[in-house]
Structures are given as structure tokens and as C-alpha cells.
Amino acid sequence: MHWINWAIVIGWLVFVFVDGLRRSHGTTKLDGYFLGNRSLPWWAVGLSVMATQLSAVTMIGTTGQGATDGMRFVQFYFGLPVAMLILGVTIVPFLMRAKVYTAYEFLERRFDAKTRSLAAFLFLLSRGLSCGTIIAAPAVVFSTLFGWSMWASVAFIGVPTVVYTMIGGVQAVAWADVKQMVLVVSALVAVVVVLLTRLPVSPVDALRIAGASGRLQVFDFHFSLTNTYTFWSGVIGGTFLMLSYFGTDQSQVQRYLTAKSVDEARSSHLISAYWKIPLQALVLLVGVLVFVYYLFVAPPLYWNPAQDRAVRAAAPDAYVQLEQRQSASWIYRAQAMESFRAAPADRATGPLHRLQAAQQEDDRIHADALAAAGKATGQPTKDVNYIIPYFVLHELPIGLTGVFIAAVIAAAMSAVAGELASLSSATVIDFYKRWVRAEATDTHYLRVSRVATAGWGTFACVVATFAVSLGSLIEVVNRFGSFFYGSILGVFFLAMLRRATAAGAFFGMLAGMAAVAAVSFGAPEVSFLWHNVVGVVAVMVVGLAISALRPAPAAVGA
Amino acid sequence: MTEIPIIDPDGTAEPPVVFRPTGDAPADGTRFPSFRVLALKVLGVELLALLLLWWLQHSFAS
Q1: Contacts of A554 in chain B (CB under 8 A)
Q2: Where do runs of H (alpha helix) occur along B1-62?
Q3: Domain residue spans in chain B?
Q4: What tens digit of pLDDT does each residue of A5-24 get?
Q5: Terminal C-alpha separation, chain A
Q6: Three-class SS of residue A84?
Q7: With contacts defined as CB-CB under 8 Å, which chain A residues touch B31?
Q8: I want to staple A268 with a disulfide (CB 3.0 to 4.6 A). Which of A42, A109, A164, A543 is the partner?
Q9: Residues of B in contact with A89 (CB under 8 A)
């Protein structure tokens, strides 16, 4: 990569790091460290919420998905605006007015300590490991592209993030997120502009070609429990997933607890409600346009240079054959595309079928190439995450390449920082302060919080470094974590019903997790989006039944 | 099992949620719009986004 690009990347890292440290001034109390003194404006909180959920995987994986699979992934977010609306009148005012540090703290005030501790423990377990995978995804790509060791790649992303989160707390994280979000959106828009100017056809023709290749297919109205990307999965299952994520996950709850008031917290959520679907559509559109670009420019046989090197070394004859097949296929596809583009709309059927057949042949060659790479490397053969990095490094002008790489790192940093801050708050508030040392000075808790942030950061970096070998373990824990997502949402819904008791909430949560586990293992074909629906329903039914059978004794103040 | 009594952070037993489906002005003087106005805005914007995606899919489909 050109030195100007490196200068931009390093300059951005230094800027975020120094600004994060600057924001730490005045953070001398727990309220400041975990909640930014409840003083952040709604727009900063809203951008921070969006930045936390926009990771490097979005920048390189989702764009790659747009190139290979088109726009249909956007259906996943159709439930988000509805979820934000519901949260704005339910859980957000609950937690804001309760003046809590963590979502789980509220569960003890409403129910009991064991419900709180179970929820917080499950959060720490699942989020601790997922934080490692958030670093690992871009680190693997950087390691491959730049020839770095995994340790170096992980340290490049992880160390500055851990340091500014540890020192500055949530205030540094939120303000860094605002800057990261601006950079990410600017980079995406700039890439779209470059693509549109580099394509030898008009934007309308580019979209027509993308549409002919099925890349603009958004809606699938089939009702299916097994397909994640359908309209109904997105609207129903997605609503429950977003309710769980934004309403009960500490990494999101901590963001809106920093807002000045209930109204500002609700307004911050509306930023996601209004902008998440357009932003995801933009991310996918970048991938779609990259797909069209490589119809005009010969693509490489492998997007992943490590796979390319491995197949060249292990099976040079097969490599040459694959390259020849791909070259012939690309020429045929380019011709088919030209005749499709030149054909008037009423006579486009023949050229369209030719173009689609050419695309299918290209897909077959790519599948064969990946199978050869799988044999040569013994590694998983997916290469979706390498399409956009390849395009960025080979096609973008000097300077913009640096901006995009900085944006990928920014997305990773903002997601990791948000997770670290939430892991630290749950560790200190829900365990250390609750079970180990209930009374101490803020200075003491602040010190412990910084140690907790550093500890979780180190843990995440170690998990990220060994992510490939820990793959199956991480998958198991993530799956376990998904059992709890819908169940914790069910407990929060129970909290709003006066008749619900602590026993109902605790055993309801266990029943919800058991129900999701039963569906997950008994019917693995059911999409995970429906697990949250199952969890919520099970918690509500079992929780209310137990509450009715064993009503609580007279409550304080009731 | 001993139930731990409900402790309400605001000192009242009522959950601190004000649900205003009627569009009345908030009693506590907050500026936040009523639930009905909010729902119309959010769902209106989502509908617009879906219509744009629908247009994108169908205008350029062959």
C-alpha cells in the first residue's frame, strides 16, 4: 500500500487515540466513566449506538455479501424501526428513570439478585467471546493482505482501542464513535462515487445489469421459518431480535443511559430507526456496484491472495486450467452483457438469458477454484470478506484507499470499544460492587473498572489471535448466548407486568433458554431469527404461570 | 424460596412508564412527541424506505 494511504491510516488512529485520552479529563467518578455523567446529546448517543453495531464485518463482509448475493440481506433490518418505536415507550423510560448503570441492575430492583446475576453472567460469557471475534474478522483479512502475523494485526486494532476505552470510559468511546461513524459513511459514499465514475456505463445501465443478474432482488414474501432473509423473518423475527439487542444488551443500553433525559434517549434511538435501513442498503449497494465493476474489468481468480498463493504452489496445473476457464468465461460474459445492454427493452429476453447463463458458468468456476483452495490450504474456503479489500487496494485512488482502510479499522474499533465498556460496567456493577465490595470510594471503583476494561481487552485480543483454532468453541458459546437473548427480553417484558414475581422471572428465563435450546437442537433448520420469538413467548407463559401459582408477598410500597 | 420484595427506584410501586397512545401533551412538560405522532413518523419513513427498495428492485429487473 502507498505511503500516503498508510499515513492516513496512522493519522486517523493517532487522532482517535489522542482525542479519546483528551476526553478522559474529568472522568473521576463512576458516573462519568460508565455513563458520561448522563450528559451526552441525543445525536451523539444515536451515532454511537449505530457505530457500536457497525463493525468491520459490515464494511468488508456485508459489502462482499452485496457483491455475491445482492440486496436481500437488507430484509434482516425491516423489524428495526418497529423495535425502536416499542423500546421508546417501554424499556428505555424504565431504565432511564431507574437511574441504573446496567440493564441487569434493574432486574434486581424489580425481581431479585439471582435473576440479575444470571442475566449479567450470560451477557459477560457471550459478549466476552464475541468481542474477540469482532477483532478477529478484520485482523484475519489484514494479516492476509499485508502479510502480518495475527498478533500484529490484532494488536494494530485492539491495543489503541483498549487503551482509550480503559482511560476515557464511555465518554471517550461515544465521542470516538461519532467521529468513526462520520468516517465510515463518508468512505462508503466516496466509494460509490468512484465506482459510478469508473464504470464505463451510466448509473442506470449499471443498475439494469445488476438487476438482470439478480443483485437488486430485495423482497422475498415467502413465509419460511428456515430462511433468514425473507420479508416476514425480518419483520417478525427481526423485531424481536432488535428488541433484545437494543433493549436489553448492555452494549446498547449503556449508550442511551448516557443521554441527558428520557426524551434524549428516545430521540437517539430514532436515528437508528430512520437511518439503519438506508445505511445497510448503501453498504450492500457498494457490493452490488463492485460486482458490476468486475463485469467490465477482469477479476482475479482468487480474491484472497493467500488462497491464490496456496493453489499456485500446490496445484499449478489446476491453477492454470482454472485461470483459462475463468478468462474464457469472463470474455463470454462481457459479450453477453454488451448485447444485453444494447438490446431494446422489448427484445432483451434472449440476451438476458445469455447473460444469466454466463453468470452461472462464472459461479461454477469460482466454486471449483474455492474447492481447489480448500484442498490446498485445508482452511475454510469462503472468500466473501476479501472482495471489497481487493477492490479497495487495487482500484481506488491513492488517499481514498487509506480512508477506506481507516474506516474499516474505525468500524472495528467503535464496535470493540462499545463492547469493552459494557463488559467492564457489567463486571464492576453487577458482580464486583454487588457481591465483592458494596461500599468503596469512586476512586476505588474507577480503578477496578479500568482494570476490568484492560482485562476484557486482553481477553478479547487473545481470543481474536486464536480465533481460527478456537472456532468451534466460539461457535458453541455464541450459540449458547443466542439461547439467552430472547429469554432476557421476556424477563424485561415480565418486569412491566405488576403480577410477575421474582420466581416467575427466574424460572421463566430458564424455561425460555430451554425452549430455545430445544428448537435449536431439535429443529436446527429453523432460522435463528425465530429463536428470540420462542424465547420471549416461553418466558412470558412460564413466568406468568409461576407468578400466578406463587404470588409474591406484599411488596414494598405496594 | 423467599421472595425478595419489589423495590421501585422512584419510590412508587407503579412502573415508571408513561404510555400516551392518545396524543395528549405530556404531563411532565417533556418535548417528546406523543406515541401516535412518533409511530406515524417512524412507520412512514420505513414505508418510504421500503417503497424505494421496491422501486429499485422492479425498475431495474429484467
Answers
A1: 5
A2: 35-59
A3: 34-62
A4: 999 999 998 998 888 788 77
A5: 67
A6: helix
A7: 263
A8: A42
A9: 17, 19-20, 35, 38
In this prediction, residue A430 has a pLDDT band, given cuts at 50, 70 and 90, of very high
Question: Which residue is closest to A90 within chain B, CA to CA?
Answer: B17
User: Which carries the bigger pLDDT value, residue A481 or residue A62?
Assistant: A62
CA distances from A209 to A69, A106, A184, A463 (A): 14, 53, 27, 42
Of B3, B10, B38, the CB nearest to A553: B3
% of chain A surpassing 90 pLDDT: 49
3-state secondary structure of A40: strand
State the Cα–Cα distance between residues A116 and A110, nearest whole angstrom. 10
Is the Cβ–Cβ distance between A291 and A303 less than 8 Å?
A: no
ipTM over 0.90: no
In 3-state terms, chain A is what percent helix, strand and coil (to 5)?
A: 80, 0, 20
Give kind and range of the element (H or E) at residue A209. Answer: helix A203-212
- Asked if the model's pLDDT at residue A200 lies above 50, the reply is yes
Nearest Cα residue to A140 out of A479, A477, A471: A471
Instruction: Confirm or reject contact between B5 and chain A (CB < 8 A).
Output: yes
User: Do A56 and A134 meet the contact criterion of CB atoms below 8 Å apart?
Assistant: yes
Best CA proximity match to A159, nearest among A16, A348, A322, A303: A16
- Chain B residue nearest residue A231, CA to CA: B50
Residue A173: half-sphere exposure toward Cβ, Cα within 13 Å: 39
Amino acid at A470: L
Q: Indicate whether B12 pLDDT > 60.
A: no
User: Which of B31, B32, B47 has the most A C-beta neighbours within 10 Å, making it the best mutation to test the interface with A?
Assistant: B32
Nearest-Å Rg of the Cα atoms of chain A is: 25
Largest CA-CA distance found in chain B, in angstroms, rounded: 67
**Residues of chain B contacting residue A555, judged by C-beta atoms under 8 Å apart:** 5-6, 13
Q: Which of A88, A216, A340 sits opposite B61 (nearest CB)?
A: A216
Q: How distant is the Cα of A98 from the closest Cα of chain B, in angstroms?
A: 5
User: Shortest Cα distance from B12 to chain A (angstroms)?
Assistant: 6
Contact across the interface for A273 and B57, Cβ inside 8 Å: no
For residue A215, give the C-alpha cell. 443483485
